[in-house]
Design a protein that fits this description.
Layout: H1 3-14, E1 29-38, E2 43-46, E3 62-73, E4 84-93, H2 97-102, E5 119-124, H3 125-130, H4 141-153, E6 163-168, E7 173-179, E8 185-192, E9 198-206
Antiparallel strand pairs: 1-3, 2-5, 3-4, 4-9, 5-7, 6-7, 8-9
Protein name: DUF1963 domain-containing protein
C-alpha cells in the first residue's frame, strides 16, 4: 500500500464525505508538509494562547513525516474564487502504510474539548520552551511572524499555506504553524498494534 492510499482511507474512516456524519471536515487534498523532530517530550497540536491543557501524544524520538489535509477557505472580504486553504487533518505515520492499514482503527477519540482558533501549532515541549518568552497575550513571536507571512502570501495555487519553523538549532526542535480557520476544537485518534505500540496519529480540526 502507498502512503497516498492510506491517507485517503484514513479520511474515509475519520472524516467521511457527506451524507455520512463526522465531527471532522473531510480534506480536499493531502500534502507532505515536512518532518516533525521529536525529542524526549510529548507533542501536541494547539493554539498556545487559546488551548489550556491540550492533549499530548508520546511519539518515538526521531524525525516523523507530517501529512496535512487541507480544504478551500474564503476569508471574509476576499474574492470567493481565490484559492485560500485551511488545514482540517494532520496525519503522522510511525510505521509502514500496510502495517497501519492492518491495525484496528476502531479506537475512541477525545472525549472533551481541546479548543483552537485561527492558527494551531504542532510541536513538542522542547520547541515550546525554546520559543519563550511569549507575548503578553500568550502568542509566541514566531507564530505572529508565521501568521503575517501566510497572510502576506495571499491566495495559493498549492496547498502550502503553512510554515515549518526550527526553534532550537542544536536539536532541530521545530514547530508547524497551520491555519485552522472556522475550526473550534481538535479531536484525534491513536492507531496502535496488538502490543499497544503507536503506529499512526490522526488529528482533526472540527467546527
Amino acid at each position: 500500500m502507498e502512503m497516498e492510499e492510506l491517507l485517503w482511507r484514513l479520511a474515509d474512516n475519520y472524516a467521511p464525505a457527506r451524507p455520512a456524519y463526522s465531527v471532522a471536515t473531510r480534506p480536499t487534498w493531502f500534502d507532505h508538509a515536512g518532518d516533525l523532530v521529536v525529542l524526549n517530550s510529548p507533542i501536541t497540536w494547539e493554539t498556545p494562547w487559546r488551548t489550556e491543557g491540550g492533549f499530548t501524544h508520546r511519539l518515538p524520538v526521531g524525525s516523523h513525516p507530517v501529512h496535512v489535509g487541507s480544504t478551500p477557505f474564503t476569508p471574509d472580504g476576499e474574492d470567493p474564487d481565490a484559492s485560500w486553504h485551511t488545514v482540517s487533518m494532520v496525519v503522522i505515520p510511525l510505521a509502514e502504510p500496510s502495517r497501519i492499514a492492518a491495525a484496528d482503527w476502531n479506537v475512541p477519540g477525545y472525549d472533551d474539548s481541546h479548543f483552537i482558533e485561527d492558527y494551531a501549532v504542532l510541536w513538542g515541549e522542547e520547541a515550546m520552551r525554546a520559543s519563550l518568552p511569549h507575548d503578553a497575550d500568550g502568542t509566541p513571536a514566531f507564530v505572529r511572524d508565521a501568521r503575517d507571512d501566510i497572510r502576506a502570501r495571499g491566495p495559493r495555487q498549492r496547498q502550502d499555506n503553512w510554515t515549518n519553523v526550527v526553534l532550537e538549532q542544536e536539536t532541530g526542535a521545530n514547530a508547524f504553524v497551520l491555519p485552522v480557520h472556522d475550526a473550534d476544537y481538535v479531536t484525534g485518534w491513536e492507531i496502535v498494534d496488538d502490543q499497544s505500540n503507536l503506529l499512526c496519529l490522526v488529528l482533526a480540526a472540527c467546527e
